[in-house]
Automatic annotation (TrEMBL):
It comes from the Bacteria. SUPFAM superfamilies: NAD(P)-binding Rossmann-fold domains. Residues 4-121 form the NAD-dependent epimerase/dehydratase domain. This is TIGR01777 family protein. It comes from Cyclobacterium lianum. It holds the Pfam family Epimerase. InterPro entries: DUF1731, Epimerase_deHydtase, NAD(P)-bd_dom_sf, SDR39U1. Transmembrane segments: none annotated. Belongs to the NAD(P)-dependent epimerase/dehydratase family. SDR39U1 subfamily. Gene3D superfamilies: NAD(P)-binding Rossmann-like Domain.
Amino acid sequence: MQNILITGGSGLIGRAITRLLEEQGKTVAWLSRNPEKYGQKAFFWDPSTQKIDHEALYWADSIIHLAGEGVADERWTASRKNEILESRVKSSRLLYEELRTLKDKPKVFVSSSAVGYYGFDTGDKLIYEGEPAGKDFLAGVVKKWEAEIEKINDTGIRTVIFRTGIVLAKEGGALKEMLKPPVAAPLGSGKQYMSWIHVEDLARMYIYAMENHGLSGIYNAVGPVPVTNRVLTERAASFRGKPFVNLGVPAFALKLLLGEMAQMVLGGNRVSSEKIQGAGFRYKYGDLNQALQQIFV
């Protein structure tokens, strides 16, 4: 499988996957609204109008689907919440509608999803893939998103869905936001669990799923050792050389600042990686100190 088509390729995870695939000698193309914008082979698509360059799907041996508006990029107004949902559902639906008509289909479809499926706050219970969906906004989004992706499996294409946790990376993501203030501090009680994964391990997981024919269905894409918000913040601050104060940012202040989105940072999930490890995947940065050292040192 030499030709890999990626949606959301210009994002943090997409770029990491692209880099690893190209190092392996694979050819990568992105689906993009602005194919000429990047120095990457790209095909046009626009999920909002359900348009796509059909040549892209004929070209692809495998598809990695990461597209979707950033959940934490803006305050959750009614229109923003709709954008978050529609960007995921419409993009997945467009791919399904096109793929089901193809005679010569790609061999595998690996899609992003989110641990948000389980709900904003599942306490300290260890969460496996068979748990029911939560009742909040994000859980509803992920449930509808996955329902669209699962249709692709019905076309005969092997389909893998990764419920992704908090991605740790040098280039962006959660760490950048956590360490933005002059002094690092836990959020709320700091006791909420954060199921983190190093971006390189996540990229390697996508490639592993693509190349291993025994994998299909839903897997949690998290590291093997979830930690509390306080532990992650304190250790990240230490590796970054930043002061840490063990006084939680009050929940009411976060609610004033973030609105409904505050539930996402005040809650947490302790998510199991047992299933993907049982499928043979091995982490390069499974230990938090090891992961933070690679990022900051």
